[in-house]
């Protein structure tokens, strides 16, 4: 009988996604703060859109990263 083992390649892929998500979790709200503190500047709207996209990306990547990590541990492919 074969024991179940963690798929290390899939685990590394999931950890990379989580790492990118953590970076986006810090950069997105920081850009929101910068955008809202400079509302009279011409780059207000593009910076606000970029910050929102980064926050949404952080949520999606965190979810996908956790799913990938769980799949690597429980051998779902």
Q: What percentage of the residues does DSSP assign to strands (E)?
A: under 5%
Instruction: Compute the number of helices.
Output: 2
Question: Quaternary status of these chains?
Answer: single chain
Tally of strands: 0
How far do the termini sit from each other? 20 Å
Q: Shape from CA axes?
A: rod-shaped
Mean pLDDT: 91
For the CA atoms, what is the radius of gyration? 18 Å
Order of helices and strands: HH
Could you name the ranges where pLDDT drops below 50 across 5 or more consecutive residues? none
Describe this structure in words.
- It is a single chain.
- This protein is mostly helical.
- Helices cover 78% and strands 0% of the residues.
- It contains two helices and no strands.
- Helix 1 runs antiparallel to helix 2.
- The protein is rod-shaped and about 65 Å long.
- The two termini are 20 Å apart.
- The mean pLDDT is 91.
What's a concise summary of this model?
78% of the residues lie in helices and 0% in strands.
Descriptive keywords:
about 80% helix; about 80 residues; mainly alpha; 2 helices; single chain
